[in-house]
Amino acid sequence: MLAGILTIATNQSYGDGMVSTMADVVRLPKYCWGTQLIRNITNDPVPISKYVEIYGKSYMHLHHFCWGLDFEYRAMRSLNQVERNFRLSQALGNIDYVLTYNRDPHFVFLPEIYTARARILFMQQENSEAVRALQQAIALKPSYVPAVSRLSGYYKFAGDNAKAMQVLKEGLLHSPNSSLLKKRFAALSSGADAQTPTASKPD
C-alpha cells in the first residue's frame, strides 16, 4: 500500500485530480461541472468563457478546488492512515493553488474555499491556521453561515464559550434567519454541546 502511495506522489506533485468519471463528478458542487478538465467528463454545453464572464478569471483555476474536494472525500474514506494523510495534503495543495493564483479579492467562491481549507487543516490538527482560514472566510462574507458555524463550534470544542457565543452573535447579525446559527446559539445558551468542527463531512 505504501509503495503505491509513494508512486502516486511521484506522479502527482501536489495532487493532480483523480476525477475521471461521472460517479466522481456527482459528489462535487454543480459549479464544478463546467470547470476546466472536469467539463470534459460532463460535456457541459456552456462555453467556459461564459462562466469566466459570470465568475471572473479565477474560474479558470477552480477545477483545482474541485479536485481538492474530491481528495478530501477520498481521504475521509481511506482506511489507511498514511493514505488518508497523503490525500489530505493533496486536497490542501489544490486548494492553496487556487488561492495562490487568484487575483480577484471579490471572487465569489473564496468564502467556500477558505472554509474547505479550514476543514482540512482541522483534520491535520493545524487548528490555529484553520481558525485563520475561517476568519478570512467570514471577513469576506460575514453572512457565510458554514464558516460562522464551524468557527463557533471550534471555540465551543476548545472550551471558550465566550468566543463561541460572540461569533454566533455576530453571525446572526448578518444572517438573522439562519436556523443553524439560531440552533447553535440556543444550544450554547442552554449549555448543550455544540458540534465540533472536525466532525462534519465535506460540503
* Shape annotation: globular
Structural class: mainly alpha
Tell me the helix content. Answer: 55-70%
Strand content: under 5%
Order of helices and strands: HHHHHHHHHHH
Poorly predicted ranges = 1-13, 193-203
Number of strands: 0
Could you tell me the mean pLDDT?
Answer: 89
TPR repeats: 111-144
Keywords: TPR repeat
InterPro entries: TPR-like_helical_dom_sf (IPR011990), TPR_rpt (IPR019734)
Pfam families: TPR_19
Characteristics:
TPR_rpt; 11 helices; 2 domains; TPR-like_helical_dom_sf; TPR repeat; mainly alpha; 203 residues
Q: How does this structure look, described?
A:
Helices cover 63% and strands 0% of the residues. By secondary structure, the chain is an all-alpha fold. The protein has 2 domains: 1-99, no CATH class; 109-203, Alpha Horseshoe (Serine Threonine Protein Phosphatase 5, Tetratricopeptide repeat). Helix 7 packs antiparallel against helix 8. The longest helix is centred in the middle third of the chain and has 21 residues, at 81-101. It is globular and about 50 Å long.
Helices and strands in order:
Elements: H1 2-11, H2 22-25, H3 39-42, H4 48-55, H5 62-76, H6 81-101, H7 110-123, H8 127-140, H9 145-157, H10 161-174, H11 179-189
Helix pairs in contact: 5-6, 6-7, 7-8, 8-9, 9-10, 9-11, 10-11
